[in-house]
Write a structure and sequence with these properties.
- Helix content is 52%, strand content 3%.
- Helix 9 (220-229) packs across helix 17, helix 11 packs antiparallel against helix 12 and helix 14 runs antiparallel to helix 16.
- The protein is mostly helical.
- Among the domains are: 8-148, no CATH class; 257-370, no CATH class.
- A hairpin with a 5-residue loop joins strand 2 and strand 3.
- The strands form 2 sheets. A two-stranded parallel ribbon has the order 1-4.
């Protein structure tokens, strides 16, 4: 009696379970289980072509690794997908960095950017494509978007040189694994803080050098913030961010703080990330995942009809949220601009409804400069790895 062949979804779910056990400590935390369950629910509702696209991406990434390619951490929407992290399609843990999966699951088709060096023997023009019918019965393409940028060539060069030196000195050890590079190496962050970033893409321009010395980053999130705060648009808020960082005390420390307040505290009350907007819409105002994504797109594209309908719903949802009123003092400390009066620090001169309205106004104010944190983190991680490899590319022969 033969065993029936498994469907693409069954095969994919088996890979996800195995990958999750490898990526996160066992047993899985409640937060990880909830996130994976939510994404799996969305994935099961997708057409089979989505499931095949995930399997296709796994095969392409595995092939690139077999060729010892320097693969970039998957940027864009895929970096916010916990399933993609479990499958090894991105090296960024979305839960650890506050990344959201909605921009990946609620678009027309999934893409998995496979960014690597052109010298690797991969035909970047021959990537598989799977047609399927959308609601408009038009053919769409799913696949892996193979790309090359100078950053990946630089990382590949650094890896090749390090491997050459190891071979020359007959060093025996584990293969070089970019994903195994520690993300808390003090010497690497010292180099960033001192502006020793010549040749590090996105972190070598003069404005960035000044920002690195001002902020002295110590985490990957710090590098991502610097990346976005030196871009046209968000750079308008750089001085305000630095002032808040240097003068405002962090109002929340407890791990029990609501997610929406923690997301604001990360940037000292400023809205810089698209993921922050999604968290406010979902965790504070109670929007569904898809409605939150639609509202985010309306913010980014200035669709005022959609925004006019969303405003009263946002305010009503915030006021109904049981975490909102207890967090008003912390919110007031984060956003001192909520009032122009010289009230005592512990006073709340504005009512809860005004605070909810001001949060919505903030979403509108920052809408044109909101940037995907997933992309900024991917660029920061790539730069960190390159600088780490440079600092550790100094092997000497044993006497």
């Amino acid at each position: 009696m033969t065993t029936p062949a498994s469907s693409p979804l069954q095969e994919l779910e088996a890979l996800i379970r195995a990958g999750a056990a490898h990526r996160w400590p066992s047993p899985l935390s409640e937060a990880v289980r909830v996130r994976l369950d939510e994404e799996l629910t969305w994935l099961r509702a997708k057409p089979e072509a989505w499931h095949q696209a995930f399997l296709l991406a796994c095969n392409r990434f595995a092939s690139a690794r077999e060729l010892k390619a320097a693969i970039a951490p998957c940027r864009g929407a895929a970096a916010g997908c916990a399933i993609a992290y479990a499958l090894g399609l991105t090296d960024l843990d979305p839960l650890a960095h506050g990344l959201r999966p909605e921009p990946f699951f609620f678009r027309a088709a999934p893409t998995f950017p496979l960014e690597t060096d052109t010298k690797v023997a991969i035909d970047v023009r021959q990537w598989a494509r799977i047609p399927y019918a959308t609601d408009l019965d038009t053919a769409q393409l799913l696949g892996i978007d193979d790309e090359n940028t100078p950053e990946h060539s630089a990382v590949q060069d650094a890896l090749d040189e390090l491997r050459r030196r190891l071979d020359a000195f007959r060093c025996i050890g584990r293969p070089i694994d970019l994903a195994a590079i520690p993300l808390d190496a003090p010497a690497t962050f010292d180099a960033f803080a001192n502006g020793d970033t010549d040749g590090i893409p996105a972190f070598q321009a003069l404005p960035m050098l000044g920002a690195l010395r001002d902020m002295r980053p110590r985490t990957l999130n710090d590098l991502a913030l610097l990346y976005v705060l030196t871009l046209p648009g968000p750079c308008l808020f750089y001085k305000d961010f630095l002032r808040r960082r240097n003068t405002l005390a962090a109002p929340i420390q407890a791990p029990s703080s609501p997610a929406w307040l923690a997301a604001l505290a990360e940037t000292h009350g400023l809205l810089l990330w698209q993921e922050q907007a999604l968290i406010l819409l979902r965790d504070l105002a109670g929007f569904s995942a898809e409605t939150a994504y639609v509202t985010l797109r309306a913010l980014l594209k200035g669709k005022y009809t959609t925004l006019r309908r969303a405003r009263p719903r946002f305010i009503k949802g915030a006021l109904a949220n049981p975490t909102f009123a207890p967090a008003l003092h912390a919110l007031h400390a984060l956003r001192p601009g909520f009032t122009d009066t010289a009230d005592e620090p512990d006073s709340l001169p504005l009512g809860p409804e005004i605070y909810a309205q001001r949060l919505w106004d903030d979403l509108l104010l920052f809408a044109s400069t909101l940037y995907p944190k997933s992309h900024a983190l991917a660029r920061a991680l790539l730069a960190y790895r390159l600088l780490y490899l440079r600092l550790h590319n100094t092997y000497k022969s044993t006497p």
